[in-house]
Design a protein that fits this description.
It contains 27 helices and no strands. 75% of the residues lie in helices and 0% in strands. The protein is globular. It starts with 6 loop residues before the first helix and ends in a 5-residue tail after the last helix. The protein folds into two domains: 168 residues, no CATH class; 360 residues, no CATH class. With 558 residues, the protein is an all-alpha fold.
């Protein structure tokens, strides 16, 4: 099936390797991985976490604290197991101990739930100690998985709550002692186990599992081949492949960095092959990957948190975000075409491209789960249940063809991938819960909103500009969902006070929080794409800003 050297050979090799990997996978590979006992524990824990989520989808959610506590314990424990598994045995000990403490915390909430509720906020010494231990463990898990920015911001908020009486410049408040903070942040639904983690444990987890089953069934391979077949021949074809494939991947992925790494590994070499300069190729890939966060249904997982924060129906949020997202991709598509025309960059030879008809014949059924998802949403089913019932649709549709049919090991692999993929989101949501909890406990959100309105001089346009700058700065180094939560709590209320509609306010800050991914100096998406292209990251991010200027203008349309 491989054609000589050339683009088709490259793309077919990618597709065949993925298909072969799906065919070869065995039960022992899923469960035991590289054969180490720690790999076994990690796989079983990830699968168990996914099964718990599916159980609650089938039989109903547990009470909030139990649902979120189990999700938190499993997810953060997995972070320590995954990041510590390749170290020397003596270096793994702290990670293993941390994982055990986190699993114990989940078990404690499950078995002591009635006693915790009966005491109505009164904590035992054991519970205070557990809360004090969980804070550094959560911050360390966040540092390991998503970097320093979010744990530092979370720690700053905890310090703000504790040191309130001693703060200058009108920032002071009454202050809260360790017991009060432990009660509020660790054993209530207002802190770590608050709304953000609740969304991660339900809506987000179910959509991540949905995406994992789609990927294991071969949807990723199909969408990439479809992008190549439909756009590869046109002027600047490889860059257009990046745009279309990232738009497709945005329906399954919650991370722009993951998009850039996944699609960039083959689109960037293709772009360079037809004449794009390395930093331009990387900038187009970073723009396309960033745009994937704007597209329903996942929208970087932030759409589901937005539902809880605004109490606006998910379908309304997705509908409002769809046109601007498509408009952004259209603008990038046009810029790609103009850049190709200016540099006389041609598309790929037709002989090296897969057939559109053949590609659709092989994979069009994989669109049906997405159709099912949006049909259920349109019929009024909850977001959680719509995602849950879309998963069996993936399995049934995949079973119609031998090439996509899921074996039992592949079923377990989807559960394992889903359980691991949600860990970073869960950690980000848990840390964000600290920020939300402190902001509501101290009244910081109200004070900051009043300050922003005062600085803007009461002008909505000035406030929008100020919000844009603040959103980009606060969004630097943060994953999409954590960025949105931080901005929704600290910045969103100011826009609402000035008369902007609730949905417009939240979409505005959501867009500009995402833009930080290509905005220097901390442009993580551009850095990821530049790493794939082996080019200068700052040069790439500036090129992405110039070529993607439309994304800085689009939010004002709300």
């Amino acid at each position: 099936m491989l054609v000589s050297s050339g683009v088709r050979g490259m793309t077919n090799e990618i597709g065949e390797s993925e298909a072969a990997e799906r065919r070869r996978i065995t039960l022992s590979e899923v469960v035991f991985g590289n054969g180490k006992w720690l790999e076994l524990v990690t796989s079983l824990l990830a699968i168990s976490s996914s099964l718990f989520a599916l159980y609650t989808g089938l039989f109903g959610e547990e009470v909030e604290l139990i649902q979120r506590g189990v999700h938190f314990g499993f997810s953060v424990a997995l972070i320590f197991l995954v990041t510590g598994k390749d170290s020397a045995w003596w270096k793994r000990v702290p990670s293993l101990l941390a994982a055990l403490v986190l699993l114990y915390s989940a078990a404690y909430i499950v078995f002591e739930y009635n006693n915790i509720m009966a005491r109505e906020g009164e904590l035992t010494t054991h519970e205070i100690t557990l809360g004090v231990i969980l804070l550094p463990l959560l911050l360390e898990a966040s540092r390991r998985s998503i970097g320093l920015t979010l744990p530092l911001v979370s720690l700053l908020f905890v310090a703000y709550a504790y040191l309130g009486p001693y703060l200058p410049f009108g920032l002071g408040h009454r202050g809260y002692d360790i017991e009060r903070l432990a009660s509020h942040l660790f054993l209530s639904t207002d802190g770590i186990y608050g709304t953000p983690l609740g969304v991660s444990a339900t809506f987000i987890f179910m959509f991540v599992l949905f995406g994992a089953f789609l990927q294991v069934s071969g949807a990723g391979e199909f969408l990439i081949n479809l992008a190549i077949a439909t756009t590869g021949k046109s002027r600047g074809g490889p860059a257009k492949i990046a745009v279309v494939s990232s738009a497709f991947f945005g329906t399954m992925s919650g991370s722009a960095i993951a998009n850039a790494s996944a699609t960039g590994t083959f689109t960037i070499p293709l772009m360079r092959r037809v004449g794009y300069r390395p930093h331009i190729a990387a900038s187009f890939e970073s723009l396309a990957s960033l745009g994937g966060q704007l597209m329903p249904p996942i929208m970087g997982s932030a759409a589901f948190v937005m539902v809880e924060f605004t109490q606006i129906a998910y379908l309304d949020i997705a509908a409002a975000a769809l046109f601007p997202g498509l408009l952004f991709f259209f603008s990038v598509f046009v810029i790609v075409d103009l850049e190709a025309a200016r540099n006389n960059l041609r598309g790929l030879p037709k002989s090296e491209l897969p057939s559109v008809r053949k590609t659709l014949n092989e994979g069009w059924l994989l669109f049906l789960p997405l159709v099912t998802l949006f049909t259920l949403l349109y019929l009024g089913y909850s977001t959680f249940m719509s995602a849950f019932w879309s998963i069996p649709t993936v399995i049934l549709v995949a079973a119609l063809k031998r090439s996509t049919r899921l074996s039992f090991p592949q079923f377990l692999e989807a559960l394992r991938k889903g359980g691991l993929a949600v860990t970073k989101i869960a950690v980000a949501c848990a840390c964000s819960g600290i920020i939300v909890g402190v902001a509501t406990l101290t009244g910081l959100a109200v004070e900051l909103s009043n300050l922003m309105i005062e600085v803007s001089g009461g002008s909505l346009f000035n406030l929008l500009l100020l919000t844009m700058v603040v959103s980009i700065i606060l969004g630097m180094g943060l994953p999409t969902v954590a960025c949105y939560i931080l901005l929704a709590v600290l910045v969103g209320p100011a826009l609402e006070q000035m008369g902007l509609s609730l949905l417009a306010s939240h979409l505005f800050i959501f867009y500009f929080g995402i833009v930080s991914g290509i905005t220097p100096p901390v442009a993580l998406v551009s850095y990821a794409a530049a790493g794939v292209a082996n080019t200068d990251a700052i040069k790439t991010s500036w090129a992405a800003c110039r070529l993607g200027i439309a994304i800085y203008i689009l939010p004002y349309a709300f």
